[in-house]
Each structure stands twice: as structure tokens, then as C-alpha cells.
Amino acid sequence: MGLFDKMFGRGASDAEQQQGAQQRFNELKQKYQTVLTTADNERIQFQNLHVQDNKLFIRAIAPSEEAKNKFWDQVKLVSPNQDDITADISVDTSRAMGAAAGGGQGGGGQTYEVKSGDTLSKISKQFYGDSDEYMRIFYANRDKLNDPDKIQVGQQLAIPPDDDK
Question: Quick check: 82 and 94 in contact, CB under 8 A?
Fold first, then answer.
């Protein structure tokens, strides 16, 4: 599975229940693949990626204003009117510095040791009460994880605080 193969974040479960949401998600994901690749290259941390109101819905945090601008430049290249995408990209430079320093966890985060049978979704459910929030954990651990579906027993994962509480 690739990085953006599944809808995730608050609202993803609702989208999955809608008729044809997964098909629409796949269509939009394909259309906006260059945007998603740019976001990944710029280390933009996605919190939500799903279909909402028949549009690709993205909520993310960019490590710099420059990364945010590169994201929007790519969106404009794909869809100048932006009629099938909604994106809320904020900038948090402290996340960039934390990631550069090895993914440090300020602001109340904690660590978790992966146990046999764990998945990021299961860990997300435990810490956030929502399995669709697993990408939050993935992005906080990009220094040790390349794929959200490939975690290993014994790994120490940083668990970011639940910003929505």
C-alpha cells in the first residue's frame, strides 16, 4: 500500500460510508498525484485526506511558508479553479525543527513501544479514539517509518498530542 492509498483523518469514516466515496477518492487522488507527491517531498504532514462534498479534502501542516506555497503552486497547476479540492494548510515551523532534530515531541506528546499485532490504526484508536488518525503517528515518525503499514515490534514511536481535544 502506498502513502495516500486510504482516506484518513477525522471525517474519513463518514466519507467511506457514502456511496461511491472510495471511487471518487481514487479519481481525485490520481488527478492530484503530483500535489500529493509535492506535499510528501516538502514534509507536509497530512491530518485529513478524504472525500467531502464530492471534493478531495486535505487538512495539513506545512513546516514552512515556502513548503505551503509549493503545495498551492502545484494545486493551481492541476486545477486552476480548484473546484474539486478543499485544502486547509497551516504552517508550524516548530514541527520542521522537531523533525530535523529527529522528530522531537514537544507539547505533551508521548512514546509508545510497538507490540505484536499492533497497527498504526490500532495505536491511533488507543490514543485518539479514532483509527483514522493513524497518519498523525506516521508523520511524527517519518525518521523511522517509510510506510504506514510497516511497523515493527519493539519500535519506539512518538505519539503526537491530540490537538483536537
Answer: no
